[in-house]
Amino acid sequence: MQPWHQQLPIYQQLADQLAARLLDGELTEGEPMPSVRNLASRYLLNPLTVSRALQALDEDGLLEHRRGLGLYVRPGARDRLRQAARQRFLADEWPALRARLQRLGISEHDLDWTL
Amino acid sequence: MDRMFRFRTLLLREWMQHRTGWLVLMALPTLLVLGLGLFDGQGIQVGSADAGDLSALPLVLQALFWTLATVAVALVLVSLTVLAQLPGLARRDQQDRSIEFWRSLPVSHAQGVGATLLMHLLLLPAAALAAGLVGSQLVVLVSVVLHHGPLVWLQLPWGQLLPSLGLGALRLMLGLLLAVLWLSPLLLLTMAASAWLKRWAVPVVSAVSLVGVYWLDARLPMPLVGPAFSRLGTEALYALVAPDLFDGPRRVVQSELGAAVADLPMALLQDAGRVLASAASPAFLLAVVVGALGFWLLVLRRQRAD
Amino acid sequence: MQALIEAQGLNLHYGRKQALDDLSFAVQPGRVVGLLGHNGAGKTTLMKALVGLHAAQGRLSVLGRDPFHDRVALLEDLAYIPDVAILPRWATVSQLITLMSGLHPKFSADRARALIRRTSVGLGDPVKNLSKGMVVQVHLALVAAIDARLMVLDEPTLGLDVLSRKAFYEMLIDEWCDGQRSVLISTHQVEEIETLLSDVLMLNEGRLVLSLSLEDIDRRFVALGHDPAAADAMAAAHPLLRYRVQGGSAALFDGAPPPEVAALGQRLRPSLVDLFVALTRRPEINRTQEG
């Protein structure tokens, strides 16, 4: 069964996982999101938890409601996510990484920069 | 969905679970009589010594004999089966815990117990006896055809035999019902004992009966237990076996054959009347009431099953 | 919406033992409620009282009925699995479907067959030939085919292997949870079921020590992960429980701990297992730990 860690509420972890799938292209823009039941069954979670996760994604502007049809992945969601992930990296993760590099005495010459 | 429908499903359950055994029991008397009696049976003595060999009797009587023989075997086998099964039946679903499954369904405890009892004390035995009766005709057919050919079988006085067979079937069913009701205190209290006391049931019931007959009765102003058992047993036996009818063989020897066979339907009806009259008695009512107590104890056990 | 189960001051004596002690709780529609407790805590007794197999004192209303006096009518609207491995062994799956069709007014034979086709069990298989896991799946399929408003499951995954348990939970979510029906599932395998639950009822020695939704649990209980250095400060704040997590220690508090203590640690999600241990420890263990 899916290991859920204790740092974050489960609905948040699910939202993050779904966002990651979106970013990877597994969930396509303009396509319907898997149903609550489907996700609940796949991740073995209570449907209420799944609803909360979808709500969180919705609040982040990644989903859209289509009347009578349900939740869809909003076009442009991938870009939004990528932007948000970039922001996080540049604002939080990179400074921490740079500090670590300094501590270890690694200079830019020691690193492989091929991207 | 009404409760009758659910009750019928409970009966269906009994059939599904036990049909193999009962199908065997339905066929066995016929097979036994066919196998043991017919192909061996040249030397069967009937009635008193001067009646002579079976094959010397008029065919009608032979037919009646085979009918009776098969039905008698059926009666014995069915009685033995019912009695042997009773203690186990009371605890049947408790050993594999499937009682929990049945109790999780919307069926009342009384219906659950009632369906089992109805099926195993009345319906299945009735079916086996009926099968025995039908099978007896097969025995008659084989016997007559083997020794005398098919034409002779067709020439049996069916006009007289069929009513007798029909009424005989009814008398048998009535007898079964009354016998079970007369014996219900013994049957149901034993089952209740088995349900409540498990392995201790048979020893306890035996001990209590013996104490009742030999110790208690001696100390009462009028013995109760012994006569009670005796009465119940006798009434049940009369209901089932109709001994009054079997004055028959003696009358036959007096070669009033035609009259005897023609009288049979009437004799059956009269006997049925006699047996019903016995049932219209306080003793019968008391027996049924005590039987109901046994039923109630079984329902209680099912309700409390943990 | 009206609660599916309402209990007020529920009491039950079992011989000399007080099996249920003054229980009050409610179960709303559309919830998956975990009934947690050690063996002998009263879970089975409570469930039996809920389905009318035990008489209890106090107010108890299940689907609007008095369970003990209205047992048969109640069971027409309720699906109950009292134990695993109680299906009659002599029957085939198909015979069980026929019997249930005739005994349960809300049972759908078609739905049962469809559900069973999704397992590896054949309709003609006798129950006695099935493995334990398959028996449970069949039982659940039969019960899920009942159009009931409430499902009561007493330790349905006991003794099953991981795959069977997973299949069980999948079927439960897929076939049952539609937002209107509720499930009450008892277990002592808390970790596994935690993510499926929306509410928790925690029993300890017949008493209800917790009756909350998981959301409310997250709000009320605070788990602080901390370095070994902060251990004494944590202990001084009298947490419910101190335990190990990946990468260090943690302390569980009922309610917010003093701000200075909170600052020493990182807020974690309180896991149901730890909460369970904290609230249902046996008194003797309590004493030795505080010594």
Care to describe what's here?
The complex is a heterotrimer of chains A (about 120), B (about 300) and C (about 290). By secondary structure, chain A is mainly α. In chain A, about 55% of the residues lie in helices and about 5% in strands. Chain A has a two-stranded antiparallel ribbon. The longest helix of chain A has 28 residues, at about 75-105. Chain A starts with 9 loop residues before the first helix and ends in an 11-residue tail after the last helix. The model of chain A has no long low-confidence stretch (mean pLDDT about 85). Chain B has about 300 residues and is mainly α. Chain B contains 12 helices and no strands. Chain B has helices at about 5-35, 60-90, 90-95, 100-105, 110-150, 150-155, 160-195, 200-220, 225-240, 250-255, 255-280, 280-305. The two termini of chain B are about 30 Å apart. Chain C has about 290 residues and is α/β, with parallel strands linked by helices. Helix content of chain C is about 35%, strand content about 30%. In chain C, the strands form 3 sheets. Chain C has a 6-stranded mixed sheet with strand order 5-6-7-3-8-9, with helices on both faces. In chain C, a hairpin with a 2-residue loop joins strand 8 (about 200-205) and strand 9. The radius of gyration of chain C is 21 Å and the shape is globular. Mean pLDDT of chain C is about 85; it is low at about 285-290. Chains in contact: A-C, B-C. The interface between B and C is medium-sized, with 22 and 28 residues.
Q: How far is it from the N-terminal to the C-terminal residue of chain B, by CA?
A: 29 Å
Look at the helices and sheets of chain B and give the structural class.
mainly alpha
Averaged pLDDT of chain A: 86
User: What's the total number of strands of chain A?
Assistant: 2
Could you estimate the helical fraction of the residues of chain A in percent? Answer: 40-55%
SSE topology string of chain A: HHHEEH
* N-C termini distance of chain A: 35 Å
- Placed side by side, the strands forming the largest sheet of chain A appear as 1-2
Number of H/I helices of chain A: 4
Low-confidence stretches of chain B: 45-51
Oligomer: heterotrimer
> Largest sheet of chain A at a glance?
2 strands, antiparallel
Strand content of chain B: under 5%
Rg estimate of chain A, integer Å = 18 Å
The secondary-structure element order of chain B is HHHHHHHHHHHH
Q: pLDDT average of chain B, as an integer?
A: 84
The largest β sheet of chain B comes out as: none
Dominant shape of chain A:
elongated
